[in-house]
Amino acid sequence: xxxxxxxxxxxxxxxxxxxxxxxxxxxxxxxxxxxxxxxxxxxxxxxxxxxxxxxxxxxxxxxxxxxxxxxxxxxxxxxxxxxxxxxxxxxxxxxxxxxxxxxxxxxxxxxxxxx
Amino acid sequence: xxxxxxxxxxxxxxxxxxxxxxxxxxxxxxxxxxxxxxxxxxxxxxxxxxxxxxxxxxxxxxxxxxxxxxxxxxxxxxxxxxxxxxxxxxxxxxxxxxxxxxxxxxxxxxxxxx
Lengths: 115, 114
Prior knowledge:
By secondary structure, chain A is an all-beta fold. Chain A has strands at residues 5-7, 10-13, 19-24, 31-37, 43-50, 65-69, 75-79, 88-95, 105-106, 110-114.
């Protein structure tokens, strides 16, 4: 079946512009995660959605970052007024449920370059 | 604070030799432990996980990992390395105290030499 998809695969933007990154999770997966992978760094947790519950936003690095998940499916990560330090690969993952240590299924990522 | 450490940035091993990729963790309570692999230009793929029970966990592609509670380690192993195992490996942990966050290590690049 279809895996997690992310778009765009690559995004180049100028400093100060806003960007939107999209994630389509696996159908039926209620949990959705966003991570950031910077060169030489591990995966940095950004935000977590589970069903209709309030998201865990504790990993968002600043108020320039926000995310939403519409209809419990597609999610959009928005970065406002991008900075060069925002350059990274943004990964989305989904899993069947929370409460248990479920396997996360990752998308291919969006490589963001801020000039 | 919860943390995961992968002390080696890179591990080189000859094809056919056994390999070990190290991971240690620090979490409250009993941990849930994972290994993921990232091949070039591809997303992370699940390899194996430890939840409870037998300390030796077997996963995909012939990999296994041993949970050692006293040493707070979860090293990834394979008896005989293949060139195709060359990739970036991530250890991750989630505690079972109700948070749904996963903490990932910084990754270890495995290079298997022919």
